[in-house]
Amino acid sequence: MDAVSTIDLKPIATDKRLAGLWRMMTGYRLTYLAATLGVGLAALAKTGTYLLLGYFVDDVLGQEDYRRVFLVGLGFIGLAAIQGVFTYMGGRLAARTAEGVTLRLRNYLFDHIQRLPFSFHDRSQTGELIQRATSDVDAVRRFFADPVIGVSRIALLFSVNFVALANLNLRLALISTVVMPFVVIMSYLFFKKMSQIYEAYQNQEAVVSTTLQENLTGVRVVKAFARQDHERDKGRRESGEKYRRGRRRVGMHATYWPLSDILTGVQMAVGFGVAGLMTINGTITVGNFLTYVGLVIWLIWPVRNLGRMIVRTSTGLISYDRIAKLVAEDQEPLDEGDYLPDGSLRGEVVFEGVGFEYDDGASVLEDISFRCEAGQAVALLGSTGSGKTSLVNLLPRFYEYTGGSLTLDGVALNRYPRSFLRSQIGIVEQEPFLFSRSMRENISYGVGRDVSDEEVETAARAAAIHETIVSFPDGYDTLVGEKGVTLSGGQKQRVAIARTLLKDPRILILDDSTSSVDTETEGLIRQALRFLMRGRTTFIIAHRIQSVMDADQILVLDKGRIVDHGVHDELMARDGIYRKVYDLQARLEVELEEEMTSA
Ligand code: UTP
Ligand code: MG
User: Fold this and answer.
1) Which candidate among 5, 15, 29, 272 keeps its CA 20 to 30 Å from the CA of 161?
2) Residues bordering ligand 2, an ion, CB closer than 5 Å
3) Residues facing 273 on adjacent strands
4) Residue whose C-alpha is closest to residue 369's, from 400, 399, 397, 403
5) Using CA atoms, how far apart are residues 187 and 208, in angstroms rounded to an integer?
6) What are the strands of the beta sheet with 363-372, ordered from one edge?
7) Is residue 440 within a helix (H) or strand (E), and if so which, with residue range?
């Protein structure tokens, strides 16, 4: 199979529907035209068969001209062959178009969704996105697979058959098409209603996938709170709604088909009756009658099929609209920025009155000012929700600050391309995510170059995870996740630390990276980190005073503001939050120790 060319699908966000669909067919238009022609020719061959049948009965049968009988026989075989070959070709070409167009669409969406900014993903549901990239894309595929061709075929068949009928007898031709306007009106109404019903159905399907996806992701919470029954009821409710909407959809079909059957039935009865009378009183020949019956049945077929085309068209278009809406979301421009330093960053960071809010508009950071020299370690301390993660997320431009000035090596942060910043900044996240790949792949993820096994191992040792990894049967080749080993929270964090170590970033961000490990491991990691932090600007977020007391400066955050700022000794000298936290933690530790020794 030939490779599928890629095209930029972004313009379909603003294109009119038809223009968008046309654009999606780039590179397949000729194939598609050929498919339509093929299918059309096959249909014409069948029309030809009925004409030949009429001729055979009227002009060949009963005359002892065996040469002509033989020729007509050949004609039937030839027409059947044409019909077979062109049906096959048309089908293949249509499938190639439909599959090619949707493969390209699916690839584009996959890429697009990955490039959407954090703020988009914050407000979108995973289940819904999955549905867009699967079920909606599939509806578009079905749309390309036959309705478009089908409609051209119906139009072609209709006009050719009508002309053929009119040639037989104009009055008969008119009688046979008298119900057509009704069928068309009915189909149109059906189309409109079906679109609404399908959209409602599709929306509900998204709700059901989101519910399922959330329950799977949150299965631990559900079980821990013994909420299975509640979740099951919720799932049933949503599935029940999908069932009701699905039934309405099927109900529409159930109404449409008999109605169109009745209409076409009446049509045939009247037509055949009139044609029969005409044959009896000699207006038309028996051959004409046979041709007429064949053509009418052949004409009814596309009319009957109109319903299916309409469903596929309406579902395809609704799904297309949903996809276009997703495509309209702006990607995060990775390479936007007018300043690219010669080498790597030094790492001097200056905040001046920086303010930040998420899309919803509530202020999260206000008037943040501090200066961090290159290579310094800055610790952030503050209660939960005080804005620590939000603050460090500004540095790789995951989110854009909304006020004040933020400079990196003396240049405004938003002048740097995001891709550059992200190559220079390493983050150990609060809840690191590992892929279902091997340990080795997880550690060397995103380094951007080939790394040797030794390097991976050195990083793992420094992050105090090497011993754990070699204790697994497959060592560094052990798979993480569902098909492999399940890691504890602390182990995951250490893999994430190793990953960041290997990346060797100029600016390092550690978000709470030692909170889910025991004290002994914490000591090991702190040692590793000290090594890791050397010569780099580091932002470290931690809840334990021990983890932050060595920092060059400590920022104490509360409700999005810096409420205290200094080194350990200075902060201890003041009677602020820091001292309170210190005293509390020290007392807890003493108590804990006493309890351990007395036990
Ligand atoms: P942070 O996530 O910055 O708090 O959220 P934090 O200091 O790191 O907290 P811990 O210690 O990890 O728990 C700061 C505020 O920003 C809001 C939150 O509601 C919180 O009040 N927020 C956070 C958003 O509005 N949207 C987000 O995507 C994240
Ligand atoms: Mg946080």
Assistant:
1) 29
2) 389
3) none
4) 403
5) 30
6) 363-372, 349-357, 403-408, 411-412
7) helix 439-443
The ligand that comes nearest to the alpha carbon of residue 393 is 1
Mean pLDDT, range 413-424, rounded to an integer? 93
Please, which residues have CB within 8 angstroms of residue 400's CB and are 6 or more apart in sequence? Answer: 394, 414
CATH class as words, domain 8-327: mainly alpha
Quote the ligand 2 centre to 579 CA distance (angstroms): 21
116-158 tens-digit pLDDT: 999 899 888 888 899 899 999 999 999 998 787 888 788 888 8
- Phi, psi angles (nearest 5°) of residue 381: -130, 145
Residues whose beta carbon lies within 6 Å of some atom of ligand 1: 122, 358, 364, 382, 384-390, 430
Which atom of ligand 1 approaches the CA of 383 most closely? 11
Tokens of 284: 């038309």
Per DSSP, helices labelled H in 328-406 are 388-393
CB 82 within 8 Å of CB 362: no
Q: What is the mean pLDDT of residues 339-367?
A: 91
Write the residue with the smallest CA distance to atom 8 of ligand 1.
389
Chain Cα centroid distance, residue 151: 30
H or E element that contains 538: strand 537-541
**What percent of the chain lies above the pLDDT cut of 90?**
45
pLDDT of 1 = 43
Between CA 235 and CA 212 the distance in angstroms is: 7
Domain ranges of the chain: 8-327, 349-598
From 386, 394, 511, mutation site for ligand 1 pocket: most ligand atoms within 8 A of C-beta = 386
Report the CATH number of the 349-598 domain.
3.40.50.300
Instruction: Write out the H or E segment, with its range, that includes residue 350.
Output: strand 349-357
Instruction: Output DSSP code: residue 331.
Output: P
Pocket of ligand 1, candidates 356, 366, 390: which has the most ligand atoms within 8 Å of its Cβ, to mutate?
390
Taking only the tens place, the pLDDT of each residue in 221-259 is 888 888 889 999 999 999 999 999 999 989 988 888 888
What are the structure tokens assigned to 318, written together? 């609704």
The model's pTM? 0.80
Output the six-digit token pair for 577: 């939050």
Identity at 242, one-letter amino acid code: K
Tokens of 526: 């702190």
Which residue is closest in CA terms to ligand 1's atom 20?
385
Q: Which residues contact residue 140 at a Cβ distance below 8 angstroms, ignoring those fewer than 6 apart?
A: 101, 102, 105, 316, 319, 320, 323
Is residue 445 within 8 A of residue 485, CB to CB? The reply is no
H runs (alpha helix) in 281-361: 286-327
Residue 425 pLDDT > 90, yes or no? yes
Compute CA distances 139 → 14, 312, 466, 503, whole Å.
20, 8, 48, 42
Of ligand 1's atoms, which has the minimum distance to the CA of residue 430? 12
Write the CA distances from 250 to 14, 360, 388, integer angstroms: 33, 40, 53
* Residue 158 structure tokens: 């209709």
Cα–chain-centroid distance for residue 265?
45
How far is it, in rounded angstroms, from Cα 119 to Cα 596? 46
pLDDT at 473 over 80: yes
pLDDT above 70 covers what percent of the chain? 97
